[in-house]
């Protein structure tokens, strides 16, 4: 499956915000960009999409930054997809031709399964599955 760079970065940024989520700790843009090796200029555009969707809030100024608007266990990957790549799950198939209806039905079922999986996968599970760096002695 091909995931856009924008969607990948949005998930990574949201995971960073979730790691530091206590409802009041603001994470600066440059911190997220550095931790995730992402361009701050591109990341600010993505975070603005997430803010417009109500998934994050922002604070301006020298001590400004971003924080989750809700709990990580209440935010799904589906929410993130809708915020930054809303056309990803659109049905673009047609029922034309002899096989069109069968092909369309198959893609609709596949899309429904993906939507269900994205809805069930919560941001908190990305934080929990992040094992961090491995150190060997």
Give your account of this protein's structure.
With 137 residues, the protein is mostly helical. The chain has a domain of 92 residues: Orthogonal Bundle (Arc Repressor Mutant, subunit A), CATH 1.10.10. 52% of the residues lie in helices and 6% in strands. It has 6 helices and 2 strands, in the order αααββααα. The protein has a two-stranded antiparallel ribbon. The longest helix is centred in the last third of the chain and has 21 residues. The radius of gyration is 18 Å and the shape is elongated. The termini are far apart.
In spatial order, strands of the major sheet run: 1-2
CATH architecture of the domain at 5-89 and 122-128: Orthogonal Bundle
Annotation field: number of helices: 6
Strand content: 5-15%
**What is the percent of helical residues?**
40-55%
Shape: elongated
Structural class by secondary-structure content: mainly alpha
Distance between the termini: 37 Å
CATH topology type of the domain at 5-89 and 122-128 = Arc Repressor Mutant, subunit A
Average pLDDT confidence is: 89
The helix-strand sequence is HHHEEHHH
Biggest sheet record: 2 strands, antiparallel
Number of strands: 2
Keywords:
single chain; 137 residues; Arc Repressor Mutant, subunit A; two-stranded antiparallel ribbon; WH_DNA-bd_sf; Tscrpt_reg_Rrf2
Can you summarize this structure?
This protein is mostly helical and 137 residues long. It contains 6 helices and 2 strands, in the order αααββααα.
